[in-house]
Amino acid sequence: MNAADNDHEQRIMKLEELAAHQARTIDELSTELANQWKTVDQMQKTLSRLTERFSALEEASLEAPAITKPPHY
Question: Is the pTM of this model over 0.70?
Fold first, then answer.
């Protein structure tokens, strides 16, 4: 083997290492993105439930109480 062949092999090894590191990073990012998507989905559902509850409470508080005379009149 001459120096040029050795240089090519080293460059190929470096490229293979880089590709392996990038593949691992992509997998880690993909997993993290999936976890964050689950969290966002749960938060959206919670927000929707809270919005419905708030709207119901708001409607209930806006209803005017019936005008009645106190029992002592």
Answer: no
